[in-house]
């Protein structure tokens, strides 16, 4: 067992030791590997962001302050997309609903539509008189 621990990378040994210490149980190797992978990705991204901050400020080397600022930016980024909880939505709805709707005047009740000439509800055809009927029949060639 001791020889196996020495063959594992130090990061894996540290994560495994931390997990065993906090949980009190041994964990599967896949869990440790995934946590080490997550740790590597997180730290790499944090260092990349800190480098960007440092370059923006015109520094050549990274400071602790650059890392702190990069971590704070990441936390804000993660919180930016979160949804409001039910209480926040209810408070917002109550605030919006406190504003009364505009009053409807008595002269303009009901459905308001434009004048008839602008509506498409009127008849759009014309009828011919009965006297014009034989003339229409002659045009078609029938007698």
TrEMBL record:
Keywords tagged on the record = Nucleus, Transcription, Transcription regulation
Where is the protein localized? Nucleus
Against Pfam families, the record matches this protein to: TFIID-31kDa
One GO molecular-function entry: transcription coactivator activity
Q: Which GO terms describe its cellular component?
A: SAGA complex; transcription factor TFIID complex
Principal localization reads nucleus
Which terms under GO biological process does the entry name?
RNA polymerase II preinitiation complex assembly
Q: Tell me which InterPro entries the record gives.
A: Histone-fold (IPR009072), TFIID-31 (IPR003162), TFIID_subunit_9 (IPR051431)
Record-linked CDD domains:
HFD_TAF9 (cd07979)
Family recorded in the similarity comment? Belongs to the TAF9 family.
Protein name per Swiss-Prot or TrEMBL: Transcription initiation factor TFIID subunit 9B
Source lineage: Eukaryota, Metazoa, Ecdysozoa, Tardigrada, Eutardigrada
């Amino acid at each position: 067992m001791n020889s196996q621990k020495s063959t594992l990378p130090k990061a894996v040994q540290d994560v495994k030791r931390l997990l065993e210490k906090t949980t009190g149980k041994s964990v599967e190797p896949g869990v440790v590997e995934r946590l080490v992978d997550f740790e590597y990705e997180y730290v790499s991204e944090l260092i990349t962001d800190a480098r960007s901050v440092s370059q923006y400020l015109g520094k050549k080397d990274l400071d602790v302050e650059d890392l702190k600022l990069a971590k704070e930016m990441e936390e804000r980024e993660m919180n930016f997309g979160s949804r409001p909880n039910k209480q926040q939505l209810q408070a917002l709805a109550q605030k919006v609903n406190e504003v009364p709707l505009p009053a409807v005047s008595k002269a303009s009740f009901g459905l308001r539509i434009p004048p008839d000439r602008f509506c498409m509800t009127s008849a759009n055809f014309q009828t011919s008189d009965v006297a014009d009927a034989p003339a229409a029949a002659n045009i078609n060639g029938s007698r």
